Amino acid sequence: MIGGQPDSERIGQRITAFLGTLRQYVGLSGSKKREPLNDPESLRTFLETRASLVAQTSLYGYLRTRAGSRYPDLFDDDDFVVSINIAKWQIWLDCLSDLSIYTGAMVIQRSDIEEDRLALFMESLVESIIADAGWPHEAGMAFPEHAAGVLTRIRHCAWSTIEDGEDAFSRSPESLVTWTPIIDELKQLDASIVRNSVRYRWQEIRREFRDLLDAETLIQKLPPAV
After folding, report:
1. Residue 66 and residue 115: Cα distance in Å, rounded?
2. Nearest 5°: CA angle at 67, between 89 and 181?
């Protein structure tokens, strides 16, 4: 028990939140998965849901693979649950960072928006997503500094140099290796496979984004440049 909350209730809340992310992604919550990305709000939703999806499926998938039949028992160890929650939020930040870089670069490629204006918009959008997340009590002490680093990366990105491929996705594969609470000896053995598993998860999301993006309409709906 952590903070007076029963283990079963805590686990149930995590599962409910994760299933909510999956439902939103596949359209089971009443939202339409195939709606075009043609305004700031739809892009924001895409960033939030897909970053969460990759972060959680990557983390829990790796843990399940390594633990095998002992996977449910992991959640009986309070200290391990604390480590999982810290990892979840840290990996989420890096997934949000990578996906934001990629999506901003694709908007540049498909429209005539000025790079400075795109940079301000993307920084503001990511900042608002992180602000809504706040500083989750389970995210650990490193969360604020890491979040600030994500915004710094967005602020200094050379958007027009990012190509349509894996170039933007440099942080999330390494993040899974770094933060997953598995002993270092095993992570060293798994590192290459783990990184590739994250890169693989991004492939479908890149395809989806290319299909749904309406960059010209999106930039017409951006706040006026100041």
Report:
1. 43
2. 35
Written as six digits, the tokens of 185 are 């000896």
Q: How confident is the model at residue 224 (pLDDT cuts 50, 70, 90)?
A: confident
Q: How confident is the model at residue 28 (pLDDT cuts 50, 70, 90)?
A: very low
As a whole number of Å, the CA-based R_g of the chain is: 18
The encoded tokens of residue 62 equal: 């790796």
Concatenated DSSP letters for 4-73? TB-HHHHHHHHHHHHHHHHHHHHTTTS--TT--B-SHHHHHHHHHHHHHHHHHHHHHHHHHHHHGGGGGG
Distance of alpha carbon 12 from alpha carbon 208, whole angstroms? 30
Q: Is 225 helix (H, G, I), strand (E, B) or coil?
A: coil
CA distances from 48 to 23, 141, 190, 223 (A): 13, 22, 28, 20
Question: Token match 């409910």: residue?
Answer: 16
Distances (CA, A) of 124 to 12, 45, 99: 33, 14, 15
